[in-house]
Known about the structure:
The protein has helices at residues 4-17, 19-37, 97-143, 155-158, 161-179, 183-192, 196-202, 208-219, 223-231, 234-242, 246-269, and strands spanning 70-73, 81-87, 92-96. It has 274 residues and is mainly α. Helix 5 (161-179) crosses helix 8 (208-219) and helix 10 runs antiparallel to helix 11 (246-269). It is elongated and about 85 Å long. The N and C termini lie close together (11 Å).
Amino acid sequence: MWTRKSVKQKGKGSFFKNFWKCVLVALILSTIVGAMSNSFGGSFPAFSSGMNHSDVATTDQDDGDNGLGIDVDFDTDNDDYSIAFTDDNGTTYGIPENVGIAVITIIIISFFVSLIITAIALAVKYFLLVPFEYGCRKFFRKNLDEPAKLSNIVYVFDSHYKNVVKTAFMRNLFISLWSLLFIVPGIIKAYEYRMVPYIISEDPNMNYKDALAESKKLMMGNKWKTFVLDLSFIGWDILSLLTWGMLEIFFVAPYKASTEAALYESLKYGINVK
């Protein structure tokens, strides 16, 4: 049975034995995680059209009073306006036909541009950032036993690239789908699948279903304890803010990453530090 004290002690000890490499890899990991957490999306521009007397016209066809003192005329024979609104004085205000077409065209173009940007962002995330993230996790896992080499962070690119990318995608997909059922189920699934990067780092050939099932098994009965473990770093996070992030770079980030690796080791092999 693991304890917060044991995994934090193991993580801190391994971090100090390989200090500068751990700092560098933790900085890379923090940058990658921060980049992946950003939401990429497009927003549709807002448009407005001012009307003056040159845009005003009258119409002979009256479709009736709408009860508010304004008559609405949908005159399909009027090529000047896509929609026309006629007041009680017989004066018509409308949206010029060419303006309506331009607005619709720009909205459609903006929509497809947003889709392209989102597709590019997802491609960068899964084909570049995720492999580096999994490599950083492997580095900290290896560093528990002996000073790890920086080459660990690119292990995904050497072999099993497609399987790792697929596993990462399916893991995040399931978490996202559970998040649609309000926030809490998504958080629970995130903790349930938290050990997947470490599992894959040890067996890159493992099918994604087996990796998810293995993580679920390891985290059974440990999700709440892991949540409390995360909360135990709040004091360090506050101190990091007070030091403008310098403490985060040189201590807190590598400390957290090493502790999580030690947690995996304890869950997987029952290794503990008394």
